[in-house]
Amino acid sequence: MKSEKVMATAASSTGTQFSAGPPHGKLAPSGGSAVREATSVGARKKIALFDLDHTLIPIDSDYEWGEFTIALGWCDASEFKRRNAEFFAHYRAGTLDIHDYVRFATQAIREQGAIKSIAAHARFMADVVQRAIKNQALELVQSHRQAGDELVIVTATNEFVTRPIAEAFGVKELIAVELERDALGNLTGEIKGTPSAREGKVIRVEQWLAERQLGWDDVETTFYTDSLNDLALLEKATHPVATNPDERLRALAALRGWRILDLF
Fold first, then answer.
1. Which of 5, 75, 21, 6 lies closest to 257 in space, CA to CA?
2. Is 53 an annotated catalytic residue?
3. 262 an active-site residue?
4. Domain count of the chain?
């Protein structure tokens, strides 16, 4: 299946907006939500779901934040790099123990405290993240905003790292790994609730929908992701879009007839 490139603008000279799913009234390709697509989708609420790392931005924000804390001198460089690379390899392989990783990833900010960590994150946004955000990713998000879709970022990275990034895209709704706090409001290193990773993304989106008195049959969803780790949510979405996909997801998307989108 041939991949797409997003055009330099969200709309063409004829006024046609970028569309991320099959035309209304047609069945979704095999592997998507064909039954839901066969119903009258016009009456359902449209929601655009975006993975973050390597989907909307060409970096892993959690990994890069770790590297940034090394530069700040907040941790032992050699040991942190070794463990960070090890965790990252497990993530790519789909074998990450996210609870162990979150304890590791939040150690520096727990030791430094909220004020220093927030100030450092502002520098991280300016020095690393803002430089990584591409116009074509902003235009993709904007195309859904202009179409009236609700925008939600769904990421396996924790809320401390990702909330400012979501704001940079103008996306208010963020489903990320929530961090547990003690009675004084300090981070404990543990995860609050279900982590939004792998099958947990489906659970967290279902919870988000339920809070709005909605279920899967009430919505038409488009989900963009680069990783096979998100297979469960891809299979749940009305319009699955393999975005900057890794080799495994690219092969599966081609097999199932899912749209493939290369933003960068």
1. 21
2. yes
3. no
4. 2
